[in-house]
# Entry
Amino acid sequence: MQETQDDNPSNSATISSDQATLGTVRIGDLSVGRLGFGAMRNTGRGVWGPPADRAAAVRLLRRAVELGVTFIDTADSYGPGVSEELIAEALAPYRDGLVIATKGGLTRPGPGEWRRDGRPAHLRAACEASLKRLRTDRIDLYQLHSPDPRVPLDDSVGALIQLQREGKIRHVGVSNVNVSELTAARRVATIVSVQNRYNVTDRTSEPVLSECERDGIAFLPWFPLSGGSDAARVSGAIAEVAARHRATPAQVALAWLLARTPVMLPIPGTSSLAHLEENLQAAHLRLSAADRRALD
# Structure
């Protein structure tokens, strides 16, 4: 279904055009294309340390922007710090219209390990460090990576509000929240985005998505391409739909997300140029009502 950019010099314009046909998603006063890029995989194994090929990781980020991506999501814990540094190396100073989002609130004791830290002092230090690594004076979207059960959510979100008042954060988002946590966060801040695990085979966050859809809050599904307890049945349906459209299962999974609601902003990540282009070509895949029924 696809050709690589190296094989087809016109492919960049084609993909950018397809991105434009999807429309945009609002993140506060910002508007971004509906297919973003998640930069977690631009790190070493276990999301730890630098990637095996740093130059290739830089090329991948630049290629994503060349192909029309206007939203890149990362976190201070990816590496840790490595993903943010690579984004700055590849893309700073940032072109107009390119939105960089990052997150704070998880620490990394070692490869594959994640611990929550929602203390205001930690979040302030994390944000300050992200500003330096990203080489920017203000982060477009700063997200609480996960509520910390040891810290009142009001305190964690309150720290982000203070940073926002100081001009270091433009917009505040939350991640890995349930409905009650989202409601609590919204009582003390204007929350413009939610980033939860959600995909065609794992819809645990459906109630949160419904809240976002109702109130026009951008929803960023992480792990958008697989997972879930009903994976075998749905994966078979994905394969059948993909065969009908001469598409890949990943493209079908992304197309399903895009068709689900206008507030959806998938952020598929990859360390492969070929997979990057494959994912972005999901922009022109239109699923029929029968396709969607098969996947529901």
